[in-house]
Amino acid sequence: METHSSRKKYTLITGASAGLGKAIAKECAGRGQNMILVSLPYEGLHLFGQALEKKHNVEVHCYETDLTQPQELLRFAQWVKQNFSLNILINNAGVGGTVPIDHATPACIENILQLNIRVLSMLTYHFVPELKKHRQSHILNVGSISAFGPVPYKTVYPASKAFVNAFSYCLRAELMGSPVRVTVLNPGVMLTNSDVIARNSKQSWWGRQLNLSPEFVAKHAVDGMLRGKRAVLPGLLCKMSYWLMRLIPNVIQSFLLLRIFQKEVPAQYKNKPSDIESGWSEKPSQL
Ligand SMILES: NC(=O)c1ccc[n+]([C@@H]2O[C@H](COP(=O)([O-])OP(=O)(O)OC[C@H]3O[C@@H](n4cnc5c(N)ncnc54)[C@H](OP(=O)(O)O)[C@@H]3O)[C@@H](O)[C@H]2O)c1
Q: What is the CATH number for 156?
């Protein structure tokens, strides 16, 4: 008879079709982990999954859905629970953007709150009972270095990542004594999509040198998670930024960060009155 411990184990990664999630999936496949990958439809997730299966001789199942839709998330969680034994949950999918708050559309703000906070919390809720059944299991939540400072023009995004940070610490404490280890990853800027690349190009020469590669971050993240670390700050500059933000008084941080991030605000949003009706219709994107 098949027992729980003899069943194949799977790693679930959200937002695995692109950017950091894709790099984490490659990292996990290289370590021989079977995976369930999820992302929005029509972004080539199945082709990517097949390529990983072929290259690394692992099992990969792909599921395309919009996780911000509560019914879709529930359907996905039930499908995973019915078919797989999960020992690693990686909550990677997240969105952000740089825009003055009064120029953001309600849909954009909703999307950040839904994906960065609700989806991460609900997937954790659905899978903790399963994760507890294993001898050792892990949750990796992807936050951001922006969680630690007052980052103007991103406002909802860093606040949502502060939630991810606090949620992860609370959950880790709650699950102490259980087999589940919770790790939070707080990376700096990675040039993962066209929107981040466009915004980063407006930064100073120094600002543009601070980027991390998703592959570098993925390796540190998976290493840290498997070692059961509480938090992962990938790279020296990321660690330095964290400590600077802890040491510099908040009022000075606000002044400095305002100067840095106002460069990223699209020209059409500078000094214009808010217009909720016409709204900010760009696809929300990353930090
Ligand atoms: N990039 C940075 O500079 C940076 C810095 C610090 C932290 N982070 C964090 O790192 C994580 C990954 O960021 P990234 O830059 O790699 O992102 P990305 O390149 O934009 O990829 C986002 C992934 O999430 C998926 N996704 C988006 N909305 C979804 C939804 N509603 N339902 C299901 N999947 C959805 C996307 O699917 P599709 O490909 O199908 O659209 C894609 O796979 C995020 O949590 C982000 O906040 C990023």
A: 3.40.50.720
